[in-house]
User: Fold NAD(P)-binding protein from Phanerochaete carnosa.
Amino acid sequence: SDEFYKRTLARLQKIQTHLETAPRARRLKDKVCIVTGAGSLKGIGRASAVLFAHEGARHLYLLDFDATNLPDLKSTIETKYPDVKVTIQQGDAADDATIESLCKQAMQEEGRLDVFFANAGIATIDGLQEISADQFMRSMRINALSCFLAVKHASVAMEKTNPSRDKEFGGGSIILTASVAGLRSGGGSVDYSASKAAVNNLAQTSAYQLRNTDIRVNSICPGLIETDMTARTFEYAASRGTMSKIGQLSAMGRYGVAEEIANMALFLASDESSYVNGQNYAVCGGLSSSHPVAP
Ligand code: NAD
Assistant:
């Protein structure tokens, strides 16, 4: 019911603000990290950047096509965590030269690259027969090609990082944001779902191709997460009083917040996931394993 739904909001707020009081465990101490798609105010990229800073990352390189909010994110992080360096850049995560030079910049400035979180993406909500060839290719480019470029260029940099990392465990971690829509048939439009399925396979195949290195590649498959991307859908549902139905698509009866995806990104970025490789992780409150009836 909506009553149940309202009660979950308080819990979500707690999850969103827990860093205000959480001790800094520094699980990313000394790590140099790139995060793409970090620019939106309620997005997974921004929440991850803040969490990575909280956990003591040495230097964060944050990229977004829309750079409007990046200066504020940089000063928010640097004010709260003076030991963390933040470099922001406006750019296209699906542009070969941009991603290559970002990885090279990290190597030049820090001599290492430990984490690449390829999170930039777009969503579409069109019926199969309305999708143009251009739209299909745009989804493939922004969602899937961006992840390929991340794996390609980050792995080159991470291999060069190896000598200094020899004494450590965990190695380099490349994290791709896919979606539960890329795991199985779902409500998303086919261009989006196909691009995210490509991302999931990319994580598996790249992990295998990079075998015998200490570079791990995994993908995260978020379920329904309240971010700028889903804001329109959520507003529409709220105006019709069907928010609880959206929540009930997952076994937990609620949608998730960006911080809950950031926590999985943190685990995969940290050395605690040292034996986790080539996997597709659903973080969806049980959505991917239930059989929802569309609201
Ligand atoms: P968001 O819209 O809040 O954030 C995505 C960010 O990516 C935006 O800041 C956008 O400007 C940026 N971006 C888009 N194209 C780009 C490009 N070519 N180069 C650089 N930056 C670009 O959405 P979000 O929900 O935080 O999405 C993050 C990732 O999570 C996406 O890959 C999305 O597909 C995935 N995802 C989200 C949900 C959800 O329910 N929100 C579910 C499954 C997967």
